[in-house]
Design a protein that fits this description.
By secondary structure, the protein is mainly α. It has helices at 24-38, 42-55, 76-85, 89-110, 114-123, 128-143, 147-160, 168-181, 185-198, 213-222; strands spanning 3-4, 60-62, 72-75, 203-206, 209-212. The longest helix is centred in the middle third of the chain and has 22 residues, at 89-110.
Length: 251
């Protein structure tokens, strides 16, 4: 996500109130990788992007704009994923020949561990292995009640992954469900409209049976999302009253 830098009022002498520790090195390497892209030097560009993802993943770079100094920043990982997602097929073919095997091996060893699945996605986003890791991570997040996290993973796929192909309907379905369960019905219905418009006949396995995804999603979105209910002060779900074990009943 992009970070906004606030300014202190003061006319022409405005100065940033928040200083962002951006990575000049990562920014320079992104520019170099983009130059290699224009020259169709896909292997060199891929090497540079992989170096950025491995060494500067937690840094930020300025968002391209006319602002001087920059006022908006984005994560290096998100920026590299977006750039790789725009590669033409010849570039993607080169990338996948090199990085699909290690991505697949990492996915196989990841199992259902979210941190390891995130690692596959972070390091090898344009690969089929990263797509599979994202879908698995979405399922785990929904099962664990982490609906916003599942929606965010789905939105990343829909926005930037270059090869969803036949899996796009599955991603739309899961992301819409996650948005609905997190209370964001506007986004959920927009995803439903996308699914209905572009792949209304898509099918998938839901609750152990094959269904039309658009029809199933319409039914699910019509039901109310679950809401949290506070316990009465003298209701005890565990020793001590709550996870901190520090609650006491009101006398």
């Amino acid at each position: 996500a992009a970070a906004q830098v606030a300014f202190v009022p003061g006319g022409a002498s405005q100065k940033p109130a928040v200083y962002v520790r951006d990575s000049a090195v990562a920014g320079e390497k992104i520019l170099l990788a983009e130059k290699m892209e224009r020259l169709r030097e896909w292997n060199k560009a891929a090497d540079i992007y992989q170096e950025i993802l491995e060494k500067y993943a937690n840094r930020v770079v300025p968002v391209q704009s006319s602002d001087t100094p920059p006022t908006r920043y984005t994560g290096v990982t998100a920026e590299v994923h977006k750039l790789l997602g725009k590669w033409p097929q010849p570039g993607l073919d080169v990338y996948r020949r090199r990085f699909e095997p290690p991505a697949s091996a990492l996915l196989e060893s990841a199992g259902n561990r979210p941190a390891e699945l995130e690692k596959v996605i972070r390091l090898y986003f344009p690969t089929d292995a990263a797509k599979a890791a994202s879908l698995r991570l979405m399922e785990l997040s929904i099962e664990n009640g982490e609906f916003s996290a599942a929606a965010w993973t789905g939105e990343r796929l829909l926005s930037d992954h270059p090869a969803l192909a036949g899996d796009r309907s599955k991603v739309l379905f899961r992301t819409a469900i996650a948005e609905h369960l997190s209370g964001n019905d506007g986004a959920a219905h927009a995803l439903f409209d996308d699914l209905q418009q572009h792949d209304a006949k898509a099918t998938g396995i839901v609750r152990g049976r094959s269904v039309n995804l658009a029809d199933e999603l319409k039914t699910l979105l019509a039901s109310a999302a679950p809401t949290a209910h506070a316990l009465a002060s003298d209701s005890w779900k565990m020793l001590g009253g709550d996870p901190s074990r520090g609650r006491v009943p009101v006398v």
